[in-house]
Amino acid sequence: MQLSLLDVASPEDGPRTRVDELRRQLEHHNRLYYVLDTPAITDAEYDALFRELQRLEEQYPDLVTPDSPTQRVGGAALEKFTPVTHRLPLLSLENATNAEEIREFDLRVKKVLGLPQDEAISYICEPKMDGLAVELVYEDGLLTVASTRGDGVTGEDVTENIRTIRSLPLRLSGESVPGLLEVRGEVFLSLDAFQKINAEKEENGEAPFANPRNAAAGSLRQLDPRITARRPLSLYCYAPGVAEGADFLSQQEFFAALAGWGLPVNPLVRPAVGIEAAVAYYDEMQQQRESLPYEIDGTVIKVDSFALQGELGEKSRSPRWAVACKFPPRQAVTVLEDILLSVGRTGVITPVAQLRPVEISGVTVSRATLHNWDEIALKDIRIGDTVVVERAGDVIPAVVRVLPEKRTGAEQVAFPPEKCPECGSAATRIADEVAVRCMGLACPPQIRESIAHFASRNAMDIDGLGDKFVEQLLSLGLVQSVADLYYLTRDDFMRFERMGDKLASNLLGAIEASKQRELGRLIFALGIRHVGERTAKALAQAFGSLENLEKATFEELVSIRDIGATVAQSIRSFFDNQANIDVIQRMLAAGVTPTEEKKKVGGRFSGKSFVFTGALTRFTRDEARQMVEDEGGNAVGSVSRKTSYVVAGEDAGSKLNKARELGVTVLTEDEFITLLEPAD
Ligand code: IVH
């Protein structure tokens, strides 16, 4: 930045330079956080910068400009979703980071209200959910619009995605539903859901989410609501917007009304009379934090009475009647001593950070995930670096970033392995994937899981061959690959602990029976990357035999419906590996003779027929048919008395009328999706 002579001569030179720098940094981090969903610093660090700017502006009021981050609410909305302007801006909260600052908030409240310092204010205490703020609009009880916070004034229309949240009513229930109700709340993912999504992502060779908040953000801002539907987002409501025809006089009454309408409210919300009760709640929640199924980053204290809230009013960015009481961040600084390689079930070779042991909120951390080599390169993580490590609940800790200023020059850049550290097979990076994989079927850590997968119910269905037996087969050195299963004898099984004649016969019988499974099951059982049950079935139908599939060229593979370049390449790599061919041949030589494909029976839609009509907005007709077939049902073209369901999109015409005439059940697209969801 250029400074004029006048600037240099000014006594405010130091503060002015700093103020400019702070604004630049805050704008940058705002954009990373709100627009790109890729925060580079923690909330605590952001808050520290923000507070420093606030302090300087208080000290030097001449330096305040209308475009300072302190004078407005946030960053800008992305273009891909329709912008939604909030009727009332979504404010932020001021922070307190310890009991003393919480008590200062209480004193400020009483000062503004002109109340004596020993007055006990009625507060409401709430967990501060670590997710994303959204606003829901219910008109005459119907959910019409849901939007993200955005910059506080304008957010993005995410109605379709919000509708996938099953805990959220699409229509309010109960008595006296208001004509217009705006409710603000936080969308979040449970730790459990977060771990499942990341496991799936790693499995598919995609970059995992850094934390549950990012995963929730990524899921909410998904352009395809079907993907969001598979991500079990949750939501708790915590604040009203405009409400016409509702008459709550306090936060407590507001929560009671929400519960009456069926809107989700965090059950940990609790009233507190006097600030000490609110401080006790803060301490208690900090203890509970470790055992909650979701992430919270603090508590929020609000003045209960809406009349008092009105009197207290707002500053430009936050209300005077509430405070966010932040917990200390669950991060620590330590040294990354080495990068270890861990080979997973599907051969993914994951880099793992070996750390100088460090305590993070009561837990000693000595390992952290580095996810994949792209992440290492992106974050420029080197062996010997001083790093920031973060943990959430019992989720595996992650390396957040490097502190480059701590470098001595002795740090070493780490490169992806060219060979599998366990079996020496080539380690390959498949196009479009971030993961480096060991391609060998004969890799020890992979064998156990690959055998368990091979034997599993949806694959070769070898009844009784569970994890425990697979473990024993391996430790006794009886199997090295799935093919060896077909060479096991009664004597082999009798070497197992607690094995009887009958059990041995059953296992042998189950293995024998599996020799004649459908070809699709066998293809699925091989565990080829990207080849799930559906793709395996399509391959079986297209090629008719394992030999044909083995010989299929890339071009032949991609010409099959639903098979893209990534899948085709993965299939080719699998069959180009001689070790895999050897396993298959040994298996066929033992008498494995796959049979022709049969239609799936016993699926949830088994025996049911569906007609799709009208303009479908949530899936294509092809996808709909596939979904029905996957569940063992039939998608047919015309409506008859025998039709089980008619799924009607927009502007459905004669087929819908016919369905009504014949008394056939008519479903909306949403209702059809609900049928597909697993029963709780
Ligand atoms: S009240 C004016 N209550 O924290 C009222 N916010 O730092 C503003 N948050 O943007 C919000 N849990 O995303 C409120 N129980 C809670 C909350 C909560 C999480 C988030 C929300 C807000 C941010 C403010």
User: CATH architecture of the largest domain, please?
Assistant: 2-Layer Sandwich
Q: Compounds present?
A: 2-(butylsulfanyl)adenosine
CATH superfamily label of the largest domain: DNA ligase/mRNA capping enzyme
Q: Report Rg.
A: 30 Å
CATH class of the largest domain: Alpha Beta
Number of domains: 5
Strand portion, in percent? 15-25%
Largest sheet: 7 strands, antiparallel
Helix content: 25-40%
* Count of DSSP strands: 24
Question: What is the averaged pLDDT score?
Answer: 87
Q: What's the overall geometry?
A: globular
Description:
The chain has 680 residues and is α+β, with helices and mostly antiparallel strands. Helix content is 37%, strand content 20%. Helix 2 packs antiparallel against helix 3 (43-59), helix 4 (99-113) runs antiparallel to helix 10 and helix 17 crosses helix 18 (533-543). The protein folds into 5 domains: 5-73, Helix hairpin bin (Helix Hairpins, Orthogonal Bundle), CATH 1.10.287.610; 94-326, DNA ligase/mRNA capping enzyme (D-amino Acid Aminotransferase, Chain A, domain 1), CATH 3.30.470; 331-413, Beta Barrel (OB fold (Dihydrolipoamide Acetyltransferase, E2P)), CATH 2.40.50; 444-589, DNA polymerase, domain 1 (Orthogonal Bundle), CATH 1.10.150.20; 609-676, 3-Layer(aba) Sandwich (Rossmann fold), CATH 3.40.50. Strands 12, 13, 14, 16, 17, 19 and 20 form a 7-stranded antiparallel beta sheet that branches. A 5-stranded mixed beta sheet has the order 2-11-10-3-9. 35% of the residues are buried. 2-(butylsulfanyl)adenosine binds at residues 91-93, 126, 128-129, 133, 186, 238-239, 300, 319, 322, 324.
